[in-house]
Amino acid sequence: MRCTLGVDIGTSSSKGVLVADDGVILATATRSHDVSRPRTGWVEMDGRVWWDEFVAIVRELLAAAPAAEVAGVGVSGMGPCILLADDADEPVRPAILYGVDTRSGAQIERMTAELGVDEIARIGGSTLTSQAGGPKLAWVAEEDPDAWARARRLFMPASWLARRLTGAYVLDHQSASQVSPLYDIENERWHEPWWERYAGRIEQPSLAWAGDVAGKVTADAASATGIPAGTAVITGTIDAWTEAVSVGAHEVGDLMLMYGTTMFLVATGAETLRTPSMWTTAGAFAGTRNLAGGLSTSGALTAWLKDLTGADYPELLADAEASGPGAAGLLLLPYFAGERTPIQDPDARGVIAGLTLEHTCGDLYRAALEATALGVRHNVETMRAAGADIRRIVAVGGGTQGRLWMQVVSDVTGLVQEVPATTIGASYGAAFLAATAIAAAGEAPAITDWNPIIETIRPDPALRTFYDTLFDRYVRLYEGSKDVVHELAAAQRGASA
């Protein structure tokens, strides 16, 4: 049976899927892992784990479906990440992860002063934040000079897998556009003056689009994985964009809402929209642009509450549903790992307001769900203010398995969400991109055939006024507590140092 493989390297796990050419899932596999947090604001991972887990997942998938004939391989991963490797493609230090790693504040400030905020936005599309890859490169150069002296190549999870599978040194345009400010978004190429200034010793990866074929599986990679030598491998991209592909939310006017360890939003348009509060990037496909945003915690916050209380998810969800809208008067700011968009504040911290001795674990869990929904609303309103034309919203990710969470998001935002049949996420999107890449002319599959919409979540109009008021309080709570919270964040950094 002809099929494609898709593997995605995520923040808390790697997931793989084997998919028949009609979109039917033949087998799935997962490997859990942890990130390292050696200091407050630092989030790292050993890049060698990405390949090790890829090999283990692929071998499990192939063993589960021995009749499968793998015709293409799709790769995807969290990002933007900064994994630097030497001439022999050995990592010189742990990979620095995306915007949840906030160590590069000094480099952001210095580069912004050197280049000018307006010029950075003109060339790269976005102002510099903890999400940007350029300041993370500068941090390594300044704070880990021994590693920098050995560094020769730049990888992200998808490009690392493509390199190990094919030998190609390539990065997709979407990922490259998040190595701000080193990518010229209008001309879709590396910005040579700034690359030379901040990353001159690093060999530039060639650029391709996510669904382009990066190369073919080498004999060595075939021996390690069991994938036949000569099998096509796509370039791949960052997981949120691959998730958008997996549910068909990558056309102009679409918004993809990804429920995961973090929450991510990607709005697709034809024009380059710029706002300092969000991230402007190249799209996954030629001719598209994205305005993107992300919460630093969502599933990570609910997992923290689960571990803290010792309750299981079904119990917490039942109690949260019983708690009802407003969580018995609680209001929570979900900034437990700083916050990315739209406040762009790495020193933000979690706040729980309104606590009394009468509140329960269910109230806290309900407040956490509402907090992530309020964060989504804050992002959507900021996108629309910047000119984003959002006509259709599609939900994806592990959090879509819980109906209550999605209903809360719709109620808080007033948005209708479409839910497709398969919400396994980026690994499925990577398999689809691989199937498209190897298809004969005129025979490429349609994602609407692979993954049709099966459910629609509609907001309760009776709750609109209530959540309008709560959103106003949410915004004011951040502004009112910000100064004290920043002092506490500084004290935390001192303690961890």
Automatic annotation (TrEMBL):
Domain Carbohydrate kinase FGGY N-terminal: 4-241
Residue ranges of domain Carbohydrate kinase FGGY C-terminal in the record: 256-437
Transmembrane segments: none
Record Gene3D superfamilies: 3.30.420.40
MF terms in GO: kinase activity
One Pfam entry name: FGGY_N
InterPro entries with a match to the protein in the record: ATPase_NBD, Carb_kinase_FGGY, Carb_kinase_FGGY_CS, FGGY_C, FGGY_Carb_Kinase, FGGY_N
Claim: Coiled coil is one of the keywords in the record: no
Keyword rRNA-binding: no
Keywords carried by this UniProt record: Carbohydrate metabolism, Kinase, Transferase, Xylose metabolism
Family, as annotated: Belongs to the FGGY kinase family.
Database matches in PANTHER family: SUGAR KINASE, XYLULOSE KINASE
Protein name, UniProt field: Sugar kinase
Biological classification of the source: Bacteria, Bacillati, Actinomycetota, Actinomycetes, Micrococcales
